Amino acid sequence: MSLIVSVYTHEGIVMAADSRLTLNSKVLQGGQEREISFDFSNATYKLFCTKGNVGISTCGAADIKQRPIAGYIEAFANKSEERHVDIVAANLLKHFRGIKPDLNTLFHVGGYDQDDEQKLFVVSVASDQITQVNVAGDQGAKWNGETDVLSRILKASWISDESGKPSTQLPSYDIPWPFFSLQDAVDFAVFAMSATIGAIRFQNRIKTVGGPIDILVVKPDETIWVQQKELHGS
Protein backbone atom coordinates (compact mmCIF):
# COMPACT_ATOMS: atom_id res chain seq x y z
CA MET A 1 0.00 0.00 0.00
CA SER A 2 1.03 3.66 0.11
CA LEU A 3 -0.32 7.04 1.13
CA ILE A 4 -1.21 9.76 -1.34
CA VAL A 5 -2.52 13.15 -0.25
CA SER A 6 -3.92 15.93 -2.41
CA VAL A 7 -4.90 19.35 -1.05
CA TYR A 8 -6.80 21.74 -3.29
CA THR A 9 -6.83 25.51 -2.77
CA HIS A 10 -7.76 28.48 -4.95
CA GLU A 11 -4.05 29.00 -5.64
CA GLY A 12 -3.36 25.45 -6.80
CA ILE A 13 -3.33 21.75 -5.96
CA VAL A 14 -0.68 20.19 -3.72
CA MET A 15 -0.05 16.50 -4.34
CA ALA A 16 2.15 14.31 -2.12
CA ALA A 17 3.23 10.65 -2.05
CA ASP A 18 5.64 8.45 -0.13
CA SER A 19 8.34 6.18 -1.62
CA ARG A 20 7.94 2.81 0.12
CA LEU A 21 7.57 -0.40 -1.89
CA THR A 22 6.22 -3.39 0.03
CA LEU A 23 6.43 -6.89 -1.43
CA ASN A 24 4.45 -10.01 -0.62
CA SER A 25 6.16 -13.39 -0.60
CA LYS A 26 5.19 -16.97 0.25
CA VAL A 27 7.36 -19.04 2.56
CA LEU A 28 7.15 -22.52 4.04
CA GLN A 29 6.90 -22.69 7.82
CA GLY A 30 6.29 -25.98 9.58
CA GLY A 31 5.32 -27.57 6.29
CA GLN A 32 2.66 -24.94 5.62
CA GLU A 33 2.77 -22.12 3.11
CA ARG A 34 2.40 -18.65 4.62
CA GLU A 35 2.33 -15.24 2.98
CA ILE A 36 4.57 -12.54 4.44
CA SER A 37 5.04 -8.88 3.57
CA PHE A 38 8.22 -6.85 3.86
CA ASP A 39 9.41 -3.38 2.83
CA PHE A 40 11.71 -3.73 -0.15
CA SER A 41 12.56 -0.21 -1.31
CA ASN A 42 12.35 3.45 -0.31
CA ALA A 43 12.98 4.69 -3.84
CA THR A 44 9.66 4.05 -5.59
CA TYR A 45 8.10 6.87 -7.61
CA LYS A 46 4.38 7.36 -6.97
CA LEU A 47 3.92 10.97 -8.08
CA PHE A 48 4.24 12.14 -11.67
CA CYS A 49 3.71 15.22 -13.83
CA THR A 50 2.56 14.91 -17.44
CA LYS A 51 3.93 17.02 -20.28
CA GLY A 52 0.62 18.89 -20.16
CA ASN A 53 1.20 19.83 -16.49
CA VAL A 54 -1.33 17.45 -14.93
CA GLY A 55 -0.37 15.74 -11.66
CA ILE A 56 -0.84 11.99 -11.16
CA SER A 57 -0.25 10.05 -7.94
CA THR A 58 -0.87 6.38 -7.26
CA CYS A 59 -1.50 3.90 -4.45
CA GLY A 60 -2.48 0.26 -4.29
CA ALA A 61 -1.07 -2.52 -6.46
CA ALA A 62 2.48 -1.51 -7.37
CA ASP A 63 3.16 -3.93 -10.19
CA ILE A 64 1.75 -5.18 -13.47
CA LYS A 65 2.93 -8.64 -14.50
CA GLN A 66 5.79 -8.35 -11.96
CA ARG A 67 6.99 -5.07 -13.41
CA PRO A 68 6.82 -1.85 -11.35
CA ILE A 69 3.76 0.23 -12.19
CA ALA A 70 5.89 3.38 -11.97
CA GLY A 71 7.37 2.65 -15.40
CA TYR A 72 3.92 2.37 -16.95
CA ILE A 73 2.76 5.64 -15.39
CA GLU A 74 5.95 7.46 -16.36
CA ALA A 75 5.56 6.30 -19.97
CA PHE A 76 1.96 7.55 -20.00
CA ALA A 77 2.97 10.90 -18.46
CA ASN A 78 5.82 11.42 -20.91
CA LYS A 79 3.47 10.92 -23.87
CA SER A 80 0.55 12.94 -22.50
CA GLU A 81 0.69 16.53 -23.79
CA GLU A 82 -3.03 17.05 -23.09
CA ARG A 83 -3.44 19.89 -20.57
CA HIS A 84 -7.12 19.36 -19.71
CA VAL A 85 -7.33 17.25 -16.56
CA ASP A 86 -10.70 15.63 -17.28
CA ILE A 87 -9.41 14.28 -20.59
CA VAL A 88 -6.18 13.06 -18.95
CA ALA A 89 -8.17 11.22 -16.26
CA ALA A 90 -10.29 9.50 -18.92
CA ASN A 91 -7.22 8.61 -20.98
CA LEU A 92 -5.44 7.24 -17.89
CA LEU A 93 -8.35 4.99 -17.01
CA LYS A 94 -8.67 3.74 -20.58
CA HIS A 95 -4.91 3.14 -20.77
CA PHE A 96 -4.71 0.96 -17.64
CA ARG A 97 -8.02 -0.80 -18.27
CA GLY A 98 -6.47 -1.87 -21.56
CA ILE A 99 -3.41 -3.26 -19.80
CA LYS A 100 -5.03 -4.92 -16.75
CA PRO A 101 -8.77 -4.33 -16.17
CA ASP A 102 -8.73 -5.78 -12.63
CA LEU A 103 -5.74 -3.70 -11.50
CA ASN A 104 -6.36 -2.81 -7.84
CA THR A 105 -4.84 0.65 -8.12
CA LEU A 106 -6.12 4.15 -7.39
CA PHE A 107 -4.90 7.40 -8.91
CA HIS A 108 -5.28 11.03 -7.95
CA VAL A 109 -5.35 13.20 -11.08
CA GLY A 110 -5.17 16.95 -10.51
CA GLY A 111 -5.18 19.94 -12.84
CA TYR A 112 -7.42 22.28 -14.81
CA ASP A 113 -10.06 21.76 -17.51
CA GLN A 114 -10.92 23.56 -20.76
CA ASP A 115 -12.41 26.47 -18.79
CA ASP A 116 -9.40 26.68 -16.44
CA GLU A 117 -11.55 25.23 -13.68
CA GLN A 118 -9.58 23.33 -11.05
CA LYS A 119 -10.45 19.65 -10.76
CA LEU A 120 -9.19 16.72 -8.71
CA PHE A 121 -10.25 13.18 -9.66
CA VAL A 122 -9.90 9.77 -8.06
CA VAL A 123 -9.50 7.14 -10.76
CA SER A 124 -10.17 3.48 -9.87
CA VAL A 125 -9.01 1.01 -12.52
CA ALA A 126 -10.67 -2.12 -11.11
CA SER A 127 -13.99 -0.32 -10.55
CA ASP A 128 -13.77 1.47 -13.94
CA GLN A 129 -14.71 4.74 -12.21
CA ILE A 130 -13.66 8.37 -12.28
CA THR A 131 -14.90 10.44 -9.33
CA GLN A 132 -14.44 14.19 -8.98
CA VAL A 133 -13.39 15.11 -5.46
CA ASN A 134 -13.64 18.88 -5.33
CA VAL A 135 -16.60 21.20 -5.84
CA ALA A 136 -15.96 24.41 -7.79
CA GLY A 137 -14.90 27.19 -5.43
CA ASP A 138 -14.26 24.93 -2.43
CA GLN A 139 -10.99 24.07 -0.70
CA GLY A 140 -10.21 20.77 0.98
CA ALA A 141 -8.17 17.58 0.85
CA LYS A 142 -8.37 13.94 -0.21
CA TRP A 143 -6.19 11.05 0.90
CA ASN A 144 -6.11 7.39 -0.11
CA GLY A 145 -4.10 4.30 0.75
CA GLU A 146 -3.04 3.76 4.36
CA THR A 147 -5.40 6.34 5.85
CA ASP A 148 -6.03 4.94 9.35
CA VAL A 149 -3.38 7.03 11.13
CA LEU A 150 -4.57 10.28 9.60
CA SER A 151 -8.22 9.40 10.22
CA ARG A 152 -7.54 8.81 13.92
CA ILE A 153 -5.82 12.17 14.22
CA LEU A 154 -8.35 14.26 12.30
CA LYS A 155 -11.70 12.56 12.90
CA ALA A 156 -13.77 12.00 16.03
CA SER A 157 -12.44 9.34 18.44
CA TRP A 158 -13.87 7.61 21.49
CA ILE A 159 -12.50 6.08 24.70
CA SER A 160 -13.79 2.56 25.29
CA ASP A 161 -15.30 1.39 28.56
CA GLU A 162 -14.33 -1.81 30.40
CA SER A 163 -16.40 -3.91 28.00
CA GLY A 164 -14.60 -2.46 25.01
CA LYS A 165 -17.54 -0.37 23.79
CA PRO A 166 -17.00 3.31 22.84
CA SER A 167 -18.21 5.42 25.76
CA THR A 168 -16.55 8.85 25.85
CA GLN A 169 -15.93 10.97 22.77
CA LEU A 170 -12.67 12.90 22.76
CA PRO A 171 -12.70 16.56 21.68
CA SER A 172 -12.74 16.90 17.89
CA TYR A 173 -11.65 20.01 16.02
CA ASP A 174 -12.44 20.96 12.45
CA ILE A 175 -9.77 22.05 9.98
CA PRO A 176 -10.58 25.46 8.41
CA TRP A 177 -9.90 24.41 4.83
CA PRO A 178 -11.38 27.62 3.31
CA PHE A 179 -8.58 29.67 4.89
CA PHE A 180 -5.71 27.54 3.58
CA SER A 181 -3.04 29.29 1.52
CA LEU A 182 -0.92 27.29 -0.90
CA GLN A 183 1.87 27.13 1.69
CA ASP A 184 -0.61 25.84 4.28
CA ALA A 185 -1.56 23.11 1.82
CA VAL A 186 2.10 22.13 1.40
CA ASP A 187 2.56 22.12 5.18
CA PHE A 188 -0.52 19.93 5.66
CA ALA A 189 0.68 17.46 3.03
CA VAL A 190 4.06 17.20 4.79
CA PHE A 191 2.32 16.77 8.16
CA ALA A 192 -0.05 14.08 6.85
CA MET A 193 2.76 12.07 5.28
CA SER A 194 5.22 12.52 8.17
CA ALA A 195 2.67 11.66 10.87
CA THR A 196 1.70 8.46 9.05
CA ILE A 197 5.29 7.43 8.41
CA GLY A 198 6.24 8.14 12.03
CA ALA A 199 3.30 6.26 13.53
CA ILE A 200 3.75 3.22 11.29
CA ARG A 201 7.44 3.12 12.11
CA PHE A 202 6.70 2.49 15.80
CA GLN A 203 3.55 0.39 15.45
CA ASN A 204 3.64 -3.41 15.31
CA ARG A 205 2.55 -3.58 11.69
CA ILE A 206 3.88 -3.85 8.15
CA LYS A 207 5.81 -0.69 7.25
CA THR A 208 3.78 0.17 4.17
CA VAL A 209 4.45 3.94 4.12
CA GLY A 210 7.92 5.43 4.27
CA GLY A 211 10.93 6.86 2.50
CA PRO A 212 11.29 10.33 0.99
CA ILE A 213 8.15 12.42 0.45
CA ASP A 214 7.60 13.82 -3.04
CA ILE A 215 5.48 16.98 -3.36
CA LEU A 216 4.15 18.56 -6.55
CA VAL A 217 2.18 21.81 -6.89
CA VAL A 218 -0.15 22.13 -9.88
CA LYS A 219 -1.18 25.69 -10.78
CA PRO A 220 -3.21 26.97 -13.76
CA ASP A 221 -0.11 27.93 -15.74
CA GLU A 222 2.69 25.81 -14.28
CA THR A 223 3.74 22.89 -12.09
CA ILE A 224 6.34 23.14 -9.33
CA TRP A 225 8.24 20.31 -7.69
CA VAL A 226 8.50 21.40 -4.06
CA GLN A 227 10.58 18.32 -3.35
CA GLN A 228 11.41 15.23 -5.41
CA LYS A 229 13.87 12.44 -4.71
CA GLU A 230 16.75 12.09 -7.15
CA LEU A 231 19.05 9.29 -8.22
CA HIS A 232 22.35 9.29 -6.36
CA GLY A 233 25.48 7.27 -5.75
CA SER A 234 26.93 6.08 -2.47
Brief summary of the model shown:
The protein has about 230 residues and is α+β, with helices and mostly antiparallel strands.
Features:
23% helix; 5-stranded antiparallel beta sheet; 4 helices; 234 residues; globular; Glutamine Phosphoribosylpyrophosphate, subunit 1, domain 1; alpha+beta
* Overall average pLDDT: 93
Reported by name, the CATH topology is: Glutamine Phosphoribosylpyrophosphate, subunit 1, domain 1
Main sheet makeup:
5 strands, antiparallel
Helix fraction, binned, reads 10-25%
Please identify, by name, the CATH architecture: 4-Layer Sandwich
- Helix/strand structural class: alpha+beta
Give an overview in words.
The chain has helices at 69-79, 85-99, 148-154, 182-202, and strands at 3-8, 13-17, 21-29, 32-41, 47-49, 55-60, 63-64, 67-68, 105-112, 118-124, 129-132, 140-145, 158-160, 166-169, 214-218, 223-227. Helix content is 23%, strand content 36%. The model has no long low-confidence stretch (mean pLDDT 93). The strands form five sheets. The chain has a five-stranded antiparallel β-sheet with strand order 12-1-2-15-16, covered by helices on one side. The protein has one domain (3-24, 39-227): Aminohydrolase, N-terminal nucleophile (Ntn) domain (Glutamine Phosphoribosylpyrophosphate, subunit 1, domain 1, 4-Layer Sandwich). The protein is α+β, with helices and mostly antiparallel strands and 234 residues long.
SSE blueprint:
Blueprint: E1 3-8, E2 13-17, E3 21-29, E4 32-41, E5 47-49, E6 55-60, E7 63-64, E8 67-68, H1 69-79, H2 85-99, E9 105-112, E10 118-124, E11 129-132, E12 140-145, H3 148-154, E13 158-160, E14 166-169, H4 182-202, E15 214-218, E16 223-227
Antiparallel strand pairs: 1-2, 1-12, 2-15, 3-4, 5-6, 6-9, 7-8, 9-10, 10-11, 13-14, 15-16
